[in-house]
Amino acid sequence: MLELKALSKTYKTGDRALTDISFSVPAGQVVGLIGPSGAGKSSLIRCINRLVEPSSGRIYLGETELTKLSGRALRQARRRIGMIFQEYALVERLTVMENVLSGRLGYVSGWRSFLRRYPQTDIDQAFGLLERVGLGDHYNKRADELSGGQRQRVGIARALEQNPELLLADEPTASLDPKTSRQIMRLIQGVCREMNLPAIINIHDVVLAQNFADRIIGLRAGQVVFDGPPSALSHKALTCIYGAEDWDLVQQSSESQNDEFLFSNAKVLELT
């Protein structure tokens, strides 16, 4: 389980990104983190994995207080946190398999990591994960030969190769089309349920968050202003998070775009 207690972050510029954030995420729960640009979503994700240093507060992963760690202990704790990035963060010239196996770099010796020689158990696990994300036949392709959706699937497999206790995703669908975005969110949701992983997904698409998250946390100006199930994300709640808007029109527009996308695919199928 992940637990945050009174987490705050103020940058050297004086900008306050987070203020007294407190919540916990139990095993297997997928949290959709929503809010306007500048609300502190990415800062929160980066504070949890200590890529950004919190100004105050505490972060626990299981019994371990991450905010007390440094040096080797922090590096070892980061192995327990799988990270999925918006821009995939793959090494383009390496194969799919080599990118997935890079999730084990924190576990192998220096010479093995330099030569990219991994134990057979790691290789077997990587093959299994590639099958799980639908890329079993692509293991020997270079990363730069893949589509955006396929690259993100590699990123998911790499994160899972760490055998993490927590999954963090920073806008994993921002560069993808509507259909692929739904496939990626469905995949993340599925693996979290199968592996009993808690997950926090920073996501801009409210409709995607409602469809695939178990719980929604809304940030505004660095503070939690909503925390509840997707069904409770009313127009009033959305206004509290984002400000005044015609939310009926926004949701209709989102549904219309998705229908248009599916209809376009249907026409293509008819022509072929």
Automatic annotation (TrEMBL):
It is a peripheral membrane protein. Residues 2-246 form the ABC transporter domain. InterPro entries: AAA+_ATPase (IPR003593), ABC_transporter-like_ATP-bd (IPR003439), ABC_transporter-like_CS (IPR017871), ABC_transpr_PhnC (IPR012693), MetN_ABC_transporter-like (IPR050086), P-loop_NTPase (IPR027417). The keyword Translocase applies. It is found in: Cell inner membrane. Keywords: ATP-binding, Cell inner membrane, Cell membrane, Membrane, Nucleotide-binding, Translocase, Transport. Its main location: membrane. GO terms for molecular function: ATP binding. This is Phosphonate ABC transporter ATP-binding protein. It comes from Marinobacter xiaoshiensis.
